[in-house]
Design brief:
heterodimer; A: about 120 residues; mainly beta; 4-stranded antiparallel beta sheet; about 0% helix; B: about 110 residues; 5-stranded antiparallel beta sheet; globular
Chain lengths: ~120, ~110
């Protein structure tokens, strides 16, 4: 049973560029959340997608946007990259139907470096 | 607003010694509490969680944590450290199931032989 898979694993971009990160949730999960983890910090919540809609959003600018597809996979898009966007981006999935007892399952993340 | 404070960014113990990682939270409502572990170049793995019920929660790899409402704490313990426990540990809180987790800044656990 595959867990949460993220691609790519590493990415280097230049300031001002745009980037798309991808996530496939664990089998049976329908909810996808994205977190940003800066070096030496805990993860920070970006947003959560359920039924192809953004259900909850953290304190991130509009440059951060996302999408969820009918197969529950998700993309995170970041426009106009800043140096401060360099971080590990973590995708986590869960089941909304069993959310009470369904903890988040995290992928191994995408390491984004902005130069 | 919810917040999580992990006391001690770095904890060092000897193999076989007690592990104690501290976590205090602030929440306006009864929280859901979690401990996650992160190994280098990996995502986060759930160690244990508290939702309701028994305040002493047992998790994987011999870890446990106790929810103390009066102290707003959820400290993580393990009676005997193993070299493989060396990792980054994160305490997290959420207001209700399925919603965003608020993480602490993490505690790096080092285990020496």
């Amino acid at each position: 049973d595959a867990g949460v898979t993220q691609s790519p694993t590493h990415l280097i971009k230049t300031r001002g560029q745009q980037v798309t990160l991808r996530c496939s949730p664990k089998s049976g999960h329908d909810t996808v959340s994205w977190y940003q983890q800066a070096l030496g910090q805990g993860p920070q919540f970006i947003f959560q997608y359920y039924e192809e809609e953004e259900r909850q959003r953290g304190n991130f600018p509009d440059r951060f946007s996302g999408h969820q597809f009918p197969n529950y996979s998700s993309e995170l898009n970041v426009n106009a990259l800043l140096l401060g966007d360099s971080a590990l981006y973590l995708c986590a999935s869960s089941s909304d139907r069993t959310s009470y007892n369904s903890p988040l399952h995290f992928g191994n993340g995408t390491r984004l470096t902005v130069t | 607003a919810q917040s999580v404070t992990q006391l001690g960014s770095h904890v060092s113990v000897s193999e076989g010694a007690l592990v104690l990682l501290r976590c205090n939270y602030s929440s306006s409502v009864p929280p859901y509490l979690f401990w996650y572990v992160q190994y280098p170049n990996q995502g986060l793995q759930l160690l244990l969680k508290y939702t309701t019920g028994a305040t002493l929660v047992k998790g994987i790899n011999g870890f446990e944590a106790e929810f103390k409402k009066s102290e707003t704490s959820f400290h993580l313990t393990k009676p005997s450290a193993h070299m493989s426990d060396a990792a980054e540990y994160f305490c997290a809180v959420s207001e209700k199931a399925g919603t965003a987790l608020i993480f602490g800044k993490g505690t790096t656990l080092s285990v020496s032989s």
